[in-house]
Amino acid sequence: MGTATLEVSHVTKRYGVGATEVVAVRDVSLDVAPGELVLIMGPSGSGKSTLLMMLGALLKPSGGTIRLNGEVLTALAENRLPDIRLHHFGFIFQDFNLLSAFTALENVAIVAEMGGVKRRDARAKATALLTSLGMSQRLHFLPEKLSGGRSNVWRLPARS
Amino acid sequence: MVRLALHNLFQNKVRLLISVGGVTLALTLILVLDAVFAGSGSQLAAYIDRSGADVWVAQSGVRTLHMSSSSLPAAAVDQVRAVPGVENASAILYVTSIVTMGNERYLAYVFGVPQDAPMGKPWRMVAGTATPVTGGIVVDRGLAAEAGIGIGDQVTTLGADFTVVGLSAGTTTITNTSAFIRLDDFAGLRGTSGTVSYILVKVQRGTSAAVVASRINAEVSGVTAQSRQSFARQERKLVSDMSTDVLTVMNLAGFVTGLAVVALTVYTTTLARRAEYGLLKALGARNRQLYRTVIAQSAVSIAVGFSLALVVTLILTVAVPVVAPTLALQVRSGSLLRVAGFALIIGGLAAVLPIKQIAGLDPAMVFRRK
Q1: Terminal C-alpha separation, chain A
Q2: What would you report as the CA-atom Rg of chain A, rounded to the nearest whole angstrom?
Q3: Strand partners of residue A32
Q4: Which residues 237-276 in chain B show a CB within 8 A of chain A?
Q5: How far is B113 from A42, CA to CA, in rounded Å?
Q6: How far is B362 from B279, CA to CA, in rounded Å?
Q7: In sequence order, what DSSP letters do the residues of B174-196 get, joined into one string?
Q8: Distance between CA A110 and CA A158 in Å, rounded?
Q9: How far is the CA of A90 from the CAs of A96, A112, A149, B231, B281, in angstroms?
Q10: Average pLDDT over chain A, rounded to whole?
Q11: Which one of A60, B75, B142, B306 counts the least CB within 10 Å of its CB?
Q12: The pTM of the whole model exceeds 0.90
């Protein structure tokens, strides 16, 4: 993440209106410093995923603000969020969420390619990354050929 | 992203087969039908092209052979011969009639040709003579074989019996055949002494056929003279005009079929990968990058389908005349361009729905369990 600092201030997320309204996240505030590891824990349905979606610029809060390096994410136009996600966030999902038509190498390299890195460079970086994780023998495996744990390793994107 | 499109398309062989096969079938339908009509037009003008005449002279206002009736005074032949630039002029009589060979009846262009005529005779003979003697007739070898007759056998046309004296080749089209008898026999049977149908003109070496045609039009009254190219063009246009409605309907059918198949395939491919497109959005892919994937899938389906359709059509242009000698297929560049244009439109339209599907995808869907 480099020098990125995440500042979350009084963030709330509501779904629905009136009688069907559900408050998934209520008035959450937290700061994440560079290099800091933060664990969010709570029972099922307590709003962890909703909070993570908002922190990752995937979902707009109903109230409050989220700042990334001083920039207010919650005020950004929708068309600016893909760049924020691409260059500042990495995700490991509950489900494996891999591109089934792509090999391990291609799944990792595609994020860098989306960011404008040349294909050859992206593949070299992805190869180095996967090799460092002990997956050099499986670079050209399709997702269906890999175990669950290894599939999640693939989801670590090779960034620019 | 284009690579992703190719992977998505080629990973599922059945889907690929349906997509490309559907496009191939639809475009082949359009191309082959067009080739059939183009071939027919060419066949229909074969006599004009191969008669040996540089200029065709007809009754005033008559510009075609097919579905036309032309009557000129026999004296016009000498008047045409006297026009500067004319090397030779020869009259023919012509009528569309039935030729009965054995138990078979065929619609035919029956030509009456002078025995010593340098033009207007069958251009390719496989047996016998190209110059019918009195009471003799030249018929197409394919139909003669079909009817089980040969040289020396009797056929009937214009209400009289004729003896087959020659077998020609390339003189049968999808619509009719050509038969050749002596001009005198024709005139006697039809009572057309003193008149001719067309005058075929050979121009002097180094003289333009168009210029001579203009001179004939200016100097001989009651005639319409055209260069061979112009006359053949009119003939082809007539066929083209007659087939326009059929072609339009079939083109539309092919277009709709192709569109439906490609659109459905690209749409279902996109739908099947919906979660993956959502994942890419979550990772930071912009909509336009994902649109490129869909468009590439559509374009590849269309390009492969078009190429295969072209190959199938070219194979058919060779194979069909072998199986059905009366049918000739001709692939024209104009037809290729038109079908390529159709294919592009199909590809573009087929990508619209999937693009709408992607545009509406919520990247947060990747956090929801499937």
Answers
A1: 12
A2: 18
A3: A6
A4: 273, 275-276
A5: 103
A6: 9
A7: SS-EEEEEEHHHHHHHHT-TTEE
A8: 8
A9: 14, 12, 17, 74, 13
A10: 85
A11: B75
A12: no
Instruction: List the single residue in B283, B363, B369 with the smallest CB-CB distance to A157.
Output: B283
Side-chain-side CA neighbours of B131 within 13 Å: the count stands at 6
- Give A74→chain B minimum CA distance, Å: 15
B331 and B30 Cβ atoms separated by less than 8 Å: no
Q: Given the DSSP bridges, would you call strands B160-168 and B177-182 parallel, antiparallel or unpaired?
A: unpaired
With CB atoms and an 8 Å threshold, state whether A58 touches B363: yes
Strands B160-168 and B154-157, bridge-based pairing: antiparallel
Q: Which two tokens stand for residue A46?
A: 């307590």
CA distance B22 to chain A (A): 23
User: ipTM score here?
Assistant: 0.79
A53 touches chain B (CB under 8 A): yes
**Nearest in space to A152 (alpha carbons), one of A73, A69, A90, A95:** A95
Summarize pLDDT for A101-156 with one digit per residue, the tens. 889 899 889 888 888 899 999 999 999 999 998 888 889 988 887 765 555 555 55
In tens, the pLDDT along B274-321 reads 788 888 888 888 888 888 888 888 888 888 989 999 999 999 999 987
B138-174 tens-digit pLDDT:
999 988 988 899 999 999 999 999 999 999 988 888 7
Query: Given B4, B273, B283, which is nearest A111 (Cβ)?
Result: B283
